[in-house]
TrEMBL record:
Enzyme class per UniProt: transferase
Domain Histidine kinase: start-end pairs: 144-362
Protein name: histidine kinase
Membrane-spanning segments: 12-40, 52-75
Entry superkingdom: Bacteria
UniProt EC number: 2.7.13.3
One GO term describing the cellular component: plasma membrane
Keywords, alphabetical: ATP-binding, Cell membrane, Coiled coil, Kinase, Membrane, Nucleotide-binding, Phosphoprotein, Transferase, Transmembrane, Transmembrane helix, Two-component regulatory system
Native organism: Ruminiclostridium cellulolyticum (strain ATCC 35319 / DSM 5812 / JCM 6584 / H10) (Clostridium cellulolyticum)
Family matches, as SUPFAM superfamilies: ATPase domain of HSP90 chaperone/DNA topoisomerase II/histidine kinase, HAMP domain-like, Homodimeric domain of signal transducing histidine kinase
An annotated Gene Ontology molecular function: phosphorelay sensor kinase activity
Amino acid sequence: MRAKLNSIRIKLILTYLLSAVLAGVCVFFVFMTVCIAFYYNYEDFLNWVNANVVVFLLAVMLVFIMLMSAFFLLLTKKSIKFIEKITQLVEQISEGNLGIQIFDERTDELGNLSKAVNKMSSELERLIAEEKRWEKSKDEMINNISHDLRTPLTSIIGYLQMIIECKQNDNEDYMMQYAHVAYSKCEQLKLLVDQLFEFTNVSSKEYKLDITKIDVAELVRQVVAGLMPILQEKNICCRIDFPDEKVYTSADGTLIARVFDNLISNAVKYSPNGGNIDVMLRKEPFGAFVRVTNYGITIPEQNLPYIFDRFYRVDKSRSNSCAGVGLGLAIVKSIVEKHKGEIHVKSNDNKTVFEVRLNTNT
Ligand SMILES: Nc1ncnc2c1ncn2[C@@H]1O[C@H](COP(=O)(O)OP(=O)(O)OP(=O)(O)O)[C@@H](O)[C@H]1O
Ligand SMILES: [Mg+2]
């Protein structure tokens, strides 16, 4: 009701009526002034009015309309100024001056309009900043991909060249050695292309989740079993701490397996030989909680905020023993977010901990 009384329509009607009343009062005073002026020959004045009644009424009407218009313009001046202010603001926004705001306490339609323009202005600013960030990260991504493709390709070309030269000299031992290096570089390339493919696939909005009811303990056990070769290779013990009760989540099983596969294989990759890793599962009121802990190599605090970014690696040197693309955790985050879950990382006191929360209903 208050909003209706406060509406522009009502305000305009009231302003119109007020202008009419003020104009009427003014006309009355003008009439009285004229009467006083003609006080001594009042009859002459009345005779003139009687003789020129049409002219008199027209003159009164004209003065009334002019005064009413003047009062109406005066009373609506503030609102017109406000509309001009909004127009200027919209013009400034269209010239790229984003984020500017109009401050006013009005609660009528004009107030709502200014609020909507303010919202549009800040939303546009946010979208353009986001667009710029995307543009920058796309450029970085292309740079990283080019770098990661060029490095193994250059060495593959180099080793193939050497094989050709060995063949000419009939040096078979060297030839085999170079062929192996070229082969491992090809595998590195394939890993990069596979990871890239998986990342674009999983982070695409069109990706449809195949949701089923999943026994989380069973799924993690299968992942750990699949990672046995790399666990044995580094002589690492994977200590499992699961509850007796079943813990279920509704999720895309293949994708969630990728989450734990990435987290546990990272834990193995960034652990010293002969170490331990811990995988803990707990039932939570709304789903499942999984914690993967490894010891030894930690992630410096300043690197933690970027750890889930595409192509981010703490050790920038791509030639170290823990070769990787830097896409694993970006894939993990994308999958967890697709399931409306949460993932957090802590790294201090000689250990790195990744915690994942998955809801029962996705
Ligand atoms: N469990 C961990 N312990 C210590 N450091 C880790 C751990 N997991 C990830 N990191 C750090 O985070 C970086 C990013 O990890 P991510 O899995 O995204 O990439 P990656 O393992 O280097 O490559 P890949 O794409 O092959 O997985 C790693 O390079 C590593 O420095
Ligand atoms: Mg990884």
